[in-house]
Amino acid sequence: MPDLVTRRPQGLYCELGDFYIDPWLPVERAVITHAHADHCRPGHGAYLAHRDGLGLMRARLGDEAALEGLAYGETRRIGDVSLSLHPAGHVLGSAQVRIEHSGEVWVVAGDYFVSGAGDCNTTCAPFEPVRCNVFVTESTFGLPIYRWAPQTEVLREMRAWWADCATQGKHALLMGYSLGKAQRLVAGLATPDAPGPVLVHGAVARLNAAYREAGVALPDVDTVTPETNFKSLRGALVIAPPAVQGSRWAKAMGPHSDAFASGWMRLRGARRRRSVDRGFVFSDHADWPGLLSAISATAAQRVIVTHGDEGALVRYLTELGLRAEAFATEYGDETHGVEAAA
Amino acid sequence: MKRFVALYLAIDATTSTLAKVAALKRYLADAPARDAAWAVYLLAGGTPRRAVPTSELRALACEAAALPAWLFEAGYAATGDLAEAIAYVLPDPEDKLDEPLADWMEQRILPLRALDAAARREAVLAAWRGLSADERFMFIKLVGGGFRVGVSKLLVQRALAEWSGSDAAGVAQRMMGYTQIDTPPTTARFQALLSDDMSGTRGGQPYPFFLAHALPGEPADSLGARSDWLAEWKYDGIRAQVVKRDGQVWIWSRGEELVTERFPEVETAASTWPDGTVVDGELLAWLPGETEPAPFALLQKRIGRTKLSKGILAEAPVCLLAYDLLESEGEDRRQESMHARRARLERLGIATSPLLDAADWAGLAAARTQSRERRVEGLMLKHRDSAYGIGRTGNAWWKWKVAPLSVDAVLIYAQAGHGRRANLYTDYSFAVWNRAPRDAAEAEAALDSTGGELTLVPFAKAYSGLTDEEIKGVDRVIRKTTVEKFGPVRRVRPSMVFELGFEGIQASTRHKSGIAVRFPRMLRIRGDKPLHEADTLDSLRALMETGTNGAEVADD
What we know:
heterodimer, A: about 350 residues, Metallo-beta-lactamase, Chain A, Rossmann fold, 7-stranded mixed sheet, 8 helices, disordered C terminus, B: about 550 residues, CATH 2.40.50.140, 7-stranded antiparallel sheet, about 20% strand, globular
C-alpha cells in the first residue's frame, strides 16, 4: 500500500483523495486542522474544516473563501479515501484528520493538547485518541524538559499574582496568543471570585465573539477602548496579545505588572528575554508526556513527526521500537520562545 | 532553604532594583543570622567549589528520570542551563525536607566533595526526592558550582545598609573578601559586616575598587580643561590591590580573591613598604631591561600555571605598577584628591604608572595613537580633584581606549547561548578566506565544494556586541541556513559578514589559522558586504605585523 500522505512542496498531500492538509502554498483543495495562521493560509480553492472553526477562518480568510464544515466524527468520502475529523483539544474547532483507505488508517493530528488530571478547558473539545496505523504528530514541545503543571494550578498562580498586583494598587497585564490561549485565560480567570474586573484587547474580543457564536459559554468581559478609564478601575486584569508589550496601548493602563502565558516560559532564558515581570507556563500544545501518551494511545506502529524538536522525538520513538521519521513542514515558528505564540 | 529559594525567585522574577532590595530586606528581617550569612555570601558573588562533578549530575539525572543520555543532552541544549534541565526532567518531588540554608550548605552540600561516588549518589538522589521543584533547581546550582543570581554586590550592600541602618560605604568596605572561596561565612563574620566598629576588620582587609567608565566620544567634548585631568596609560594586566600592614603583605585581585601566593616577587617587593600602606595598581608581566610590558599572553601563561616553577618565574616575571594610594601611615586616604594621593604615592618610591605630560587634548590624542606599540589599551583620565570612590560611580575616572583592530569575517558555525540567551543562537564562529576569491561566483562555488583550494579558515569565536534585535535577526538566518547540526552546534551555509573587533593579535600554534585574537567581539553586521569581499588570512597577518588597521576603523 502506498503512503496515504506524503510531503509535497505545497504541503502534506493525500494523493488518493487529491487534497492537502494545512498546505503552506496555494492549492485546489485544503483540509484545515485549525485556524491558526501557520495552518490556515489564504489562497486555496476550497477549504474543509471542523464547523466550529469556520467563523474563525472566515475572519482570517475573508468573505470570498469557499469554506465547508464537518462535525467531529462525520465521515466524508473524498476520491478513494474516507475522511473524518476528531477533536485535538488545541483551539476551537481544532481537529485531527483521519484518512482511511482499504483498512489502512492515517491520522494527521495538526496541533494538539492532551488534557490530564487538573486540566479543565471549556473552550474546546478535548483531544480524543484515534487508533491508526500511521500517526502524524506535532512536536512543538518535543523534549522531556517540557512538562506542564495542571492548568488549574497555573491559573491559581495567575490569580495570586493578579491579587498581589491589586493589593499594590496596580493593574495586571497578561499576554497570550489571541486565538485559543486568550479564551482559555478568560474562561479560567473571569470567575465570580476574581480579585478585580477582567478586560480584553480588541483582537481578543473579536475572537471571543467567534467562540460565543460557536456556542462556547465564555464569561462576559469588557473590551479595552480609547475611552477605558484605568484610573477608575481597581486591580483590573487585561488579557492581550503579546504584541502590546511596551506599546503605547499598554502604557495607557497606568501602573501595571506584566506577564506572559506560554509553554516557552518553561525556560528561564526565554522568560528573561521577554523581560516581563512574570512568565506562566501555560500552553495549548502537548507537553512531552502528552506527546508520548497520545502516540501510544493511537497504537500506531509508524509515526511521522512535524515541526518542533522532531529530531529528538524521532530518535526516541525509534529506540522504543516504532518506525519513526520526520516531515519538514513550515508550521510553527522555530525561533523558540522569541516570537512564538505557543 | 525554602526562605532562600523564595528570595531567589523574588529577585529572579523582577527587573526592578527597588523590588530586589525590598525582597532582600524582607529576607534579612526574617532569616536567622547564620542563614543570612550564607545568603549574603551567595548573593554577593561567593561561589562554593563544585561539590559534585557535572558529569555525575548528568548521569544521575538520566538515571532518576529514566532518560537516555542523548535525550537529556538535547534538553540541556534547549534550556542552556544544567540545573534547569535537571530540575525539569526529574520525577515529581515529595517536598518533605525543610532545613535551614546554613544546614544545607554546611552539613549536606559542602561535605559532598569528600564523599565517594556511591555515597554522593545516594545523597544527591535523596535531596532530589526530598526537595520541592524550585529547591531542587537551587540545590543543583549550589552543588554544581554555578550559582549566580540577578543581583549585584552593590545591591546586596545597599539592602544590608538600609536594613541595619549602617552606612553603605562602610558595609562595602567590610564586605571586601567576605565572598572568598573556601572561606564559608559564619554568624560572626556576618555580624561584623553590620558593625560600624572598623577596628576588628583590619588585618589584610582591602578597600572596594574604584572603577572607570568608558569615555563616550572625545575628551575635549565632555571633560573641560585638560589641566583638570591626570592622564596615564591604560595597562593591559591584572588590576590588584596590595595591602601592607603589621609586617605582612596581602595581594587582592579585582574579583576580591587573595592572590598573594601567585605573585611572590610582588609580595617580596611590598614587604619593604611601611606598615599601613595600601596601593592600587596593575600586575604586569615585564621582562628585565624592557621599556614596555610583555604582551598579556605571557601573563596569562603565568596565571595558567598551578605550580610556580623557577622556570616560569624567570620566563614571566611579574611586577606591580602602582597608580593610586588608598592608605598610608595607617590612614584611609581615599577622600583626599587624586593629585594629593598621587604625590603621596610618588614619595613612596615604588614603580608608578607615569603621567603623560601632553599640554592639551590634541597632544594626548597624538600620544594615544602610540598605544599599541606600547602594548597598552589606551589612556586613563582621572580628575585631579577626585576622591577614590566605590565601584563604578561618579564621573571622575574615564578609560579612553584605542579603537579595536578589525576585520570583516564570515559566520560559519553557531551555538545556542546560555542563561538569558538560551535557545537563541548567539555564539558564533568566524572565518576568513585563505586567499581573496576572484569574484562572487568563485566564492559561492567554494561554499558548495569541500576540499577545494579556496576555503574559509575559522579563526575566532565571538558572542558579544549585537543588540537583542540584531541577535534575533541573525538567529533566524542561522535556522534557515543550517546545513548540519552536531549537538548544540549548527553549521550554516555562510551568508553573513560581520565586522569583528579585537584587542590584540598573535601567532598561535593552537589555532588552525595559526592566529589567535584577543577579546573578539562583533562591531557590526556588514549587510552591505558580499561574502567574497570578506577579509583573508593575509589581512590578519598584516595586522599582526603592523599592529594597526590598514584603514582606521570607522566609528559609524
